[in-house]
Structure to design on (120 residues):
């Protein structure tokens, strides 16, 4: 595994991949929403965006997404890529300007996985 990583980094046009994260805590310090991503080259790769059920529908996900996208723009990112499963947040991302680039049907068996992109 290390050899392929070494090969990729030696030949890829980008030499830096930086983590990016944001979270919201309640009064007790418990994490109630969070997002994690990576930036490299022109891209933001959004790995996770999660909002606790107790506060869903209160614009918290929109705030987190906006915070992550803004931070990525400051790093020079021009595009975002994410994936979401059929029972997750595709309508949420679509509402925020993401377009389905590709759908992997039959994932992992009868569901599907949406690969979505957005110009930042």
């Amino acid at each position: 595994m290390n050899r392929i990583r070494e090969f990729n980094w030696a030949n890829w046009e980008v030499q830096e991949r930086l983590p990016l994260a944001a979270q919201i805590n309640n009064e007790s310090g418990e994490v109630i929403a969070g997002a994690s991503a990576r930036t490299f080259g022109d891209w933001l790769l959004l790995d996770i965006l999660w909002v606790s059920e107790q506060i869903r529908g209160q614009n918290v996900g929109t705030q987190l997404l906006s915070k992550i996208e803004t931070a990525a723009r400051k790093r020079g990112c021009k595009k975002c890529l994410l994936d979401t499963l059929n029972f997750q947040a595709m309508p949420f991302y679509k509402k925020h300007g993401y377009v389905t680039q590709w759908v992997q049907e039959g994932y992992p068996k009868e569901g599907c996985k949406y690969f979505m992109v957005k110009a930042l």
